[in-house]
UniProtKB/TrEMBL annotation:
InterPro entries: ClpP/crotonase-like_dom_sf, Enoyl-CoA_hyd/isom_CS, Enoyl-CoA_hydra/iso, Enoyl-CoA_hydra_C
Similarity comment text for this entry: Belongs to the enoyl-CoA hydratase/isomerase family.
UniProt-recorded name of the protein: Enoyl-CoA hydratase/isomerase family protein
Pfam name, any one: ECH_1
Domain of life: Bacteria
């Protein structure tokens, strides 16, 4: 069985972790297959958003500690594993296409890093998300030490990372880590509400905006970079379509060009 399965709904690609017997704990094949699916989505010319989710009882329970505890990995294999996790989170954060994490059950450690990397996080109210690394003598990855404080503030990030405790989906929304918390039975519908908007909006505009909000631009430079981006956008077919649709009082039909 593949560690990751995919399916498409219109312009939305669903990437589903497929190790339910291990609560979708991450291993090298899961990272490799996720990375390949993300890269293909960015280049296939038809995907406008990606949804990450998990089969079975959890989104992703983090590192497969059973595999780690076996002591069978060489130093090279350990390095490859760590860098694969970093590449997956970096790809999610840097790719032009918006990514939605749909979280149920557990998003722990590496799973929380993947969910935090997404542009949108929709979580079940009773799901648990957390970074237990300091409590088990390891370290966080996925850019969390920079990204988490930007999402929840420095003091809340210190609490989440240094205490190592799990929080519920409802608390994740209250602190700014998640966009929405809903009953688990409504999770797919809540995600679909977001993806329907993302698939309808202008792909080029969203790509440029995503890059901008994920980049720390000095205040003195931001006005120039925004102006350059706007002028570039104004040369696209989608910009002209948006202007015409507004004038004609109709819904725009964006092509991504």
């Amino acid at each position: 069985m593949p560690e990751v399965v995919t399916h498409r709904e219109g312009h939305c690609l669903h990437i589903v972790f497929n190790r339910p017997e291990r609560l979708n704990a991450v291993n090298e094949p899961l990272y490799q297959q996720t990375l390949a699916a993300l890269r293909e989505a960015e280049t296939d010319g038809q995907t406008r958003c990606v949804v990450l989710s998990g089969q079975g009882r959890a989104f992703c329970a983090g590192a497969d500690l059973k595999a780690h505890g076996s002591g069978q990995r060489s130093e090279r294999e350990r390095t490859e594993y760590v860098m694969l996790g970093q590449e997956v989170c970096a790809q999610i954060q840097r790719m032009r296409i918006p990514v939605v994490a749909q979280v149920h059950g557990y998003a722990i450690g590496g799973g929380a890093e993947i969910a935090t990397s997404a542009d949108f996080l929709v979580i079940a109210e009773d799901a648990m998300i957390g970074f237990p690394e300091s409590a088990i003598g390891t370290y966080v990855g996925g850019g969390v030490t920079t990204r988490l404080p930007r999402l929840v503030g420095l003091r809340k990030a210190a609490e989440l990372l240094l205490f190592g405790r799990r929080i519920s989906g409802a608390e994740a929304v209250r602190c700014g880590l998640a966009n929405a918390a809903v009953p688990q039975e409504g999770l797919a519908a809540a995600t679909a509400n977001i993806t329907s908007i993302l698939c309808a909006n202008a792909p080029v505009s969203m790509a440029v905006i995503k890059a901008a909000i994920n980049t720390s631009t000095p205040p003195d430079d931001v006005f120039r970079t925004e102006a350059r981006a706007l002028l570039d956008i104004m040369r696209t077919d989608d910009w002209l379509e948006g202007v015409r649709a507004f004038a004609e009082k109709r819904t725009p039909r964006f092509s991504g060009k």
